[in-house]
Amino acid sequence: MQFTSLVFILFFSVVFAVYWWVLGKKLKAQNIFLLLASYVFYANWDWRFLVLLIISSAVSYYLGLKISESKTPQRKKLLVNLGLLFSIGTLFYFKYFNFFIDSFAQLFHIKSTLTLTIILPLGISFYTFRMISYLLDIKNNKLKAETDVLAFFNYIAFFPSMTSGPIDKAGLLLPQLKKERIFTLENSSDAVRQILLGAFKKLVVANSITPVTQEIFQNYDHLSGSTVAFGMILFLFEMYADFSGYSDMAIGFARLLGFKITRNFAFPLFAQNIAEYWRKWHISLTSWLTEYVFTPLVIQFRDYEKKGLIAAIILNFILIGAWHGPRFTFVLFGLLHGLYYIPLILNNKLNKKKKFSKSVPTFQELGNIILTMAMVCFALVLFVAPTLKDALGMYGRIFSLSVFSVPEFIKIKILGLIGIVILIDWLNKDQEHGLEISRFRPVTRRLFYVFLIFMILYFGVFGNSSFIYEQF
């Protein structure tokens, strides 16, 4: 049930109507209905894994209570470790077991059929991280164990952010689940605008680019280096439009139900160095790893000063790469991004934030943006390549003399769509999202809404509109 499908629109319309107009201010009834809606949404993909979701929620809820009741640090540590073992073990089995079985079979030339039976449950990487952060926050006394079982199960299964995040922390979402939500026309109107922008990004921009990048990546060994490099640039915009489009819609649908969830993108295409890029890209994941992985590592390595900081960042990014899936190329993708940080650390520029001095970027600012995006695109080769051999083949094409030729697959329509996304983001780079345009005149706003709706209806690529990050 994709956000952009007619089935989901009908599903959400019914949920919205019952949630606000039938149940009104009955908080418990709203939460019961919201949980049922989330389970229906998830079961629509595969009802068998709904059982896993419910069991995982129950285990985390029970352990959270027991950790909070623990009288000794030893017992608390034991229960936390049991929770981590359960959560990480479940994630490892479904997401990585195939990889290790395949690798073992290839190493010893064994034919294996076991891997054919293991399917990756939808959203498991995202809801597992929610459960882990919940238990760690209780352990670190940042959060009290939740006693409201209905609120907790809703927190884990909240359907707007179930399939691809954002990864909300319990401290943000649980309090909202336990207090009355108020419907306001102003908030709902802004939520609809954000959903409209997300739909435009996904259906028009990302889905228009996808066939081109697929053609390039599948036939890279027969194409010029310039075409492969152009494909990497296109994929950056495809992934941004796809994932930020999903996030815009997830945040918008949550707001329509009265919830404020984590912002996941802050216009990363204008980042002036790689550290700023990661502060603006997939914010919920990077902030999660910063709190629960990077910061403990920095404390552990503090005696080694800059060397320790470099080691912590590299380990953190290797984990970011591995989080995406069981491929060596993902690990190398993370490693490369970690290595990108070394010059910033050595020059004491890691935490320096750069603001644009004018309404139009200066040549230096533009140069910084181009360099940063070039680094991102270079690393994306490892992201899209299924094997190390394919990655080396793509790099070989890019660094061949054919990189100086005119690239193929240049389409004015796609370049125009990318230009529209860049313009929207630039005009709203200081806002919460790209269609927060209340400062413009009403006539201008309405014309722009009509323009986006027209673009979706005329240029939108419908049908199978799965999102890239659903596979993670």
From TrEMBL:
Topology class, membrane: Multi-pass membrane protein
The protein, known as: Acyltransferase
GO MF entry, a single one: acyltransferase activity
Keywords in alphabetical order: Acyltransferase, Cell membrane, Membrane, Transferase, Transmembrane, Transmembrane helix
Annotated transmembrane regions: 6-22, 49-66, 78-96, 108-129, 308-324, 330-346, 366-388, 408-427, 447-469
Origin species: Chryseobacterium luteum
Record localization: Cell membrane
Key word Transmembrane helix present: yes
GO cellular component: plasma membrane
A single BP term in Gene Ontology: alginic acid biosynthetic process
UniProt family annotation: Belongs to the membrane-bound acyltransferase family.
UniProt xrefs under InterPro entries: Ac/AlaTfrase_AlgI/DltB, AlgI, MB_O-acyltransferase, MBOAT_fam
One Pfam family here: MBOAT
